[in-house]
Every structure is written in structure tokens, then in C-alpha cells.
Amino acid sequence: MTTATNGRTTRPAKGAVAPNTALAAALRDAGCSYASLAHRVNELGRRQGAEPHYDKASVTRWLQGQQPRGTTPELIAAVLSDRLGRAVTPADLGFLSDQQRPVVGRALAYREDVAETLHTLAELGSTDISRRTLLGSVPFVAAALAVPQREWLLWLHERTDQEQAGGAVLTAVTDGGPVEQVRAMIGMFEQMDNSFGGGGVRTSIVHYLSTEVVPMLQRRGMPAGQQRQLFAAAARLAAMAGWSSYDTGEYGLAQRYMIQGLRLCAEGHDRVLGGQILAGLSHLATGLGRPDEGVALARVGIATARGSGSPLGLMRLYAMAARGHAALGHQPETTRALSAAEREWERSPGPAQESPWVRFLDHHYLQAEAAACFRDLGLGEQAERTAAESVRANAGRRRRQAISRSVLATAQLQQNRLDEAVGTATEALEALGSVHSERSVQALRDFRARLTPRRAEPSVQEFVRAARPVLGAAA
Asked: Which end of the chain is more exposed for a tag (fewer CB within 10 A), N or C?
């Protein structure tokens, strides 16, 4: 940038930085004051595990050209995306370009070039494991979900009937090659995750994906059919990395792994798996307070899975739509979505005849999701009935049982049966000792928050004291 002084052209002194006009324009368009931006960035950061302490002076420095530290540009972009009603990236706001930004910024993008996706996944996994350059919390950015949905729908529309039919259910691999090996590892990870929660297996999934599977896909010379199946298996691993990140409270990482997994899924031509990744993103969005986005993602997933030969996959997607509607307080829409999920369950020929990616789904899964819907709608009797069935049926799935116990406790509380509710919650608290799952912890924190109006009761005080080492201090 140059300026004219007394007829002469001058340049900024060496080392000086230019004002950030892009950020200034975005603030004007969003009608956002300096104090409001700082407050919202702090609030979002705290909600996602960081402790930022920005103020009006911080915003002034950013406008003067200072580059914020760590993942703060992503937090700023997330706040302004919500205020503007459209996705903006750190680069759009005058911060370093995507290629200069840490990988946590680039991993929100759904890239057309799959080679860039593989490179991003390898770097994201390496950074995630080492944590040397992953400074602060990685934010969940709701506005960043719009482009992946659009790109996925375009891919779905452009596929020929033959490609869609070929991607409905993956064929078995029996030659002892890399696809079979990767699927065996996926099976082991799934068993560990179901038994002990994502915290005990997350790092292993990320390490295997980024250091073993991604390099396989980067090599040349693999037969096309085998490569396509390996892309689908890698997409499944990326989705598992996302789910296990979600399960450990790493919400921003969960979003990034799932977005990259969706892109790999397009290379694998697997619509069933694509629907399941969209179901995961839907659950994440609803759980983080964006049920409107959760419903939209579930609808994209339903469009993806319809006609793919997977009623179980559709069952889960309708259940996710129901969760979003329930969080919005839309009872008729919730009822319709749960009824559609039940119909798909009845249509399924059985797990053995379905895609390997949905064989873990059963009617007890639907009961657990329905119980959460009834809880959110304040229908205590229905929530209690379905949650109790889920608890009885899921003795071998400790995370699902722990969450269902918390939902059951809330349902009992909604019916003013305080002592019974506290007793059920105490059982859930005891079960958490063997489950490394932030989602299970969060479900019990939700119950504890609902006890606030009854905090003078001795049984409530005793439960809060007993829960503090596991749940942390009450807000």
C-alpha cells in the first residue's frame, strides 16, 4: 500500500502491517461492535473448551493488521458467519490465506481435488496427535456446513444410475489385500468404541488413518475397484475419528474429520456411508445448539440414502431429523420422523443383508433416540418408557446405556419423582467409570442442571457433591 505526501509517494516502513480492511467491512456489514465481537469470540471459545480473554482493544489490534494467535481467526470467522448469515473464512476476513493458515482452517473445506483432501487428512491427523501446533480449542463452525452439503448434493445429482447402484452396498473383499485389512481394523475399533467410548480409541483411529491408510491411497497403481473400496473404508475411518472426537468433547475436530470423510465417500461412490456421515454431522449440529442445521443435514442424508438399499441407514437419518425437530419443540414433525424411522426398521431385511456400515444399528438404537426426543419435548411418561427399554436392552453397550440412564433420570424428574430420579442418575454416574465418553458425561450434566430448582433438597445436594469429581463444578 502506498500513500501520497507533499506530492511524493511513500510506502509503509519495513515491518509495518496494513490495516485489515476486509475485517472492517465484515464488521460493518454484520452491524457488530468491537465489544460485541470480542464478547462473542470469548463466549464461543469458552463453550468449546478454550479460555480466551479478548476485549475492544484486541479487535482494534486485529483491524490494525495484527494476526490473531492460534485458532482465534476460526472463532472470529464462526461468529461473523452467524451474524452475516453466510459462511466466511479467515482468509475472507483478511487473515492469512488458507494455505498459510493452520490445517484446522483448511479442514473445514470440501475440496474438489481429492489429493488435497488426503493431504489435509494426513496433516490434520499428525497435528492432532502431536498437539504441538494445535493451539487452543478448535471451534465448531455451523456456517461451514453449507458448502459440504451443496457439494455433496451436486455429486449425488451428477452420478449416473450405474454408479449409484454400484455404490449402494460394498462388495466383499476376499483376497487378503489392503481393503480387507483396513476393514478388520475398523471392526476392532468399532468394538472398542461401543464397549468403552471414544476416549479410549480416538488416538488409535486417527493415527491409523493418517499414517497407514492415507499413504495407501496416495500411492499409484492400485486397481480402480480396490481403490474405490479403500476410499470408502478411509471415509468410514474419518467418520469414526469424527465420532470419537465428538465423544471426547473435541467438537471442532469432529466436524472437520466428518467433512473430510464425506469427500472421501464421494470417491468411494458409497451413498449408504455418505448418509451415515451426514447423520453424524446432524447429531453434532443438534447437540451443539443448532437443531435447524441438524434437520437440514438429516434431510440431505435422507435424499442420499433413499433408494440405496439400506432401510437401517434411513432409520437412523429419520431419527436424527426427529432429534432436531424435538430440540426445536416441533412435536408433530418429531412424531412423523419417528414414525418414518419405525417403518424403515420394519422394512429392513436384517443386518446381514445391509451395508456393513449400518449393521450396528438396531431397534434399541431407535428407542434410545426416541427417548431423547420425548425428553426434549417434555413428554416424561413416554421418555421414561422408551429410556427404560433402552437401558434393559443395552447392557453390552456401556455408552448407550449410560446416556439412556441419564435420559431416564430426567424423565422421572419431569414427573416429579425426585428421589427415584436421583437414584437413577447415581447409577448412571457409577457406570461412567468404565466409559470414556464426554457425551455420556454431558447427558448427566444436563440432568444435574435440571436439578437447580430443587437444590435445597438433601438428596440433590448429596448427588451434586458425589458427581463433582466426574462432572466438574456446576455452572
From this structure: C
Q: Is 4 helix (H, G, I), strand (E, B) or coil?
A: strand
Which of 222, 233, 124 has the alpha carbon at shortest distance from 172?
233
For cell 473400496, what's the residue?
Answer: 229
Give the pTM.
Answer: 0.80
9 touches 2 (CB < 8 A)? yes
d(CA 242, CA 261): 9
The radius of gyration computed from the CA coordinates of the chain, to the nearest angstrom, equals 24
State the chain's maximal CA–CA distance in angstroms: 84
Mean pLDDT of 381-387: 95
> What span, in angstroms and rounded, lies between the C-alpha atoms of 154 and 149?
9
Q: Are 81 and 87 in contact (CB under 8 A)?
A: yes
Cell of 229: 473400496
Query: Could you tell me how far CA 266 lies from the centroid of its own chain?
Result: 19
Of 260, 296, 277, 244, the C-alpha closest to 358 is 277
299-354 per-position pLDDT tens digit: 999 999 997 889 999 999 999 999 999 999 999 999 999 999 999 999 999 988 99
Instruction: Give the pLDDT confidence score for residue 374 in this predicted structure.
Output: 97
Question: Which three three-digit cell numbers place residue 446?
Answer: 444436563
Architecture of domain 362-475: Alpha Horseshoe (1.25)
Helix (H) / strand (E) containing 102: none
What ranges in 377-417 are assigned the alpha helix state H? 380-393, 398-414
| Distance from C-alpha of 263 to C-alpha of 118, rounded to nearest angstrom | 10
Q: Which of 61-75, 122-136, 405-419 has the lowest mean pLDDT?
A: 122-136
CB 142 within 8 A of CB 282: no
**3-state percent breakdown (helix, strand, coil) of the chain, nearest 5:** 70, 0, 30
The neighbouring-strand residues paired with 8 are 5
Phi first, then psi: what are they for 10, rounded to 5°? -120, 155
Rounded to the nearest 10°, the torsion over CA 303, 307, 309, 315 is 40
Angle at Cα 82 formed by Cα 80 and Cα 85, nearest 5°? 100
CA torsion sign for 345, 350, 356, 361 is: positive
Contacts of 299 (CB under 8 A, 6+ apart): 321
Q: Closest Cα to residue 261, out of 245, 278, 246?
A: 278
Q: In terms of C-beta density within 10 A (0-12 exposed, 13-18 middle, 19 or more buried), how is residue 452 classed? A: exposed
DSSP class of residue 474?
A: -
Rounded Cα distance between 317 and 338, Å, is: 10
CB contact at 8 A, 409 and 419: no
Residues 364, 387: Cα–Cα separation, whole Å: 10
Q: Where in the chain is the domain with CATH 1.25.40.10?
A: 362-475
